[in-house]
Design brief:
Blueprint (H helix, E strand, L loop, with lengths): L47 H11 L3 E6 L4 H11 L2 H4 L7 E6 L4 H6 L7 E5 L5 E6 L4 H22 L17 E3 L5 E3 L5 H7 L6 E8 L2 E5 L2 H9 L1 H4 L8 H7 L6 E8 L2 E5 L2 H9 L1 H7 L22
Parallel strand pairs: 1-2, 6-8
Antiparallel strand pairs: 1-3, 3-4, 5-6, 7-8, 9-10
Length: about 325
């Protein structure tokens, strides 16, 4: 595939809400850390109604933790698990947690058919009850539980998102973020300037006369000044994983180049995805996917050697 064959300038698209247009024709704006997520503290809430409202607005799963003051296992969970940093970092970001004293809220306890303490009930973004967990567990087990709940909720949210006719999986106009030239060299961002993309939020064609290389990937720039900017701080301009789909990497342990039609900005950094579904999964829970990527491994790092250098870390 020839880099010079790309002539249509596109706008990186991002989703601030599930029903925003894929292509606005305007330079994209920076995506916020979570989609429609109100400011909430990294702590347990005490009001079921407040927690329910926050979960609905943020499209995060609601986690109801039923306990009681007389319950010994509940007190151990309170002391050793619930307020640890690994847990509170996920509260308000990956899940909305609410603690419910079963003695004080008998009607709610009966509604959710709680007979043993502690018991946790998960309600996903579509209102379905997604799981029930009984008894005390270790900190590591509990953190893994929260991440599993968050991941399953992302799938629920993605399945609810409205479909679009603008781009489909069979659309031949999709262009890989990482392309391989006839000489075997890998070119990033389909030959567009990553500096212009990051600084100006515009697609501007780079030139093979101004090339900067980082971790084995060539980037085409517009001028010597852009080359200097890029080489001074390459991590500021290159997309995460050089444009590989981090959702695909996590789910399938496979490095797959994202499409420039499925791009998103998060905290000033560009991300690309192989499918619309993967982009929606990321947009609905970016912090979770970035967190699990810290320990990711890939099955085909011979094709993408930069994945062995620590680029997966956030």
């Amino acid at each position: 595939m020839s880099v010079c064959s790309f002539t249509t300038l596109l706008t990186v698209c991002f989703l601030a809400t599930p029903d925003m247009d894929l292509f606005s024709g305007m330079p994209p704006t920076e995506m916020q850390p979570a989609v429609n997520t109100p400011e909430v503290s990294h702590d347990w809430l005490n009001s079921y109604e407040e927690a329910k409202e926050l979960a609905a607005k943020s499209k995060l799963p609601l986690l109801l933790h039923f306990d009681a003051t007389w319950c010994g296992a509940c007190r151990r969970m309170d002391r050793d698990v619930l307020h640890r940093e690994q847990v509170t970092a996920l509260l308000g970001q990956s899940v909305i947690g609410v603690r419910i004293d079963s003695d004080q809220h008998k009607k709610l306890t009966a509604e959710f058919k709680i007979s043993t303490l502690p018991t946790e009930v998960v309600v996903f973004a579509d209102g379905t009850v997604g799981g029930r967990y009984v008894g005390a567990v270790s900190l590591d087990t509990y953190v893994a539980r929260l991440r599993k709940i968050s991941g399953r909720n992302s799938d629920v949210v993605a399945s609810q998102a409205p479909q679009t006719d603008d781009i489909s999986e069979s659309d031949s106009s999709k262009r890989s973020c990482l392309i391989v030239r006839h000489d075997g060299k890998v070119v990033g961002v389909s030959g567009y300037s990553p500096v212009a993309l990051t600084v100006q939020r515009q697609w501007k064609k780079g030139s093979d006369r101004f090339v900067a290389t980082h971790e084995g990937v060539d980037y085409f720039l517009q001028s010597e000044e852009e080359v200097r900017q890029f080489n001074d701080k390459p991590d500021r301009y290159i997309p995460r994983l050089h444009g590989c789909d981090l959702v695909e990497l996590f789910q399938e342990n496979r490095a797959t180049a994202g499409s420039i039609e499925y791009g998103s900005f998060y905290l000033g950094e560009a991300f690309f995805f192989a499918s619309l579904e993967n982009r929606e999964r990321f947009v609905n829970n970016p912090t979770w996917f970035l967190g699990v990527m810290a320990d990711a491994r890939t099955a085909n790092n011979e094709k993408f050697p930069f994945l062995r250098t620590g680029s997966v870390d956030n």
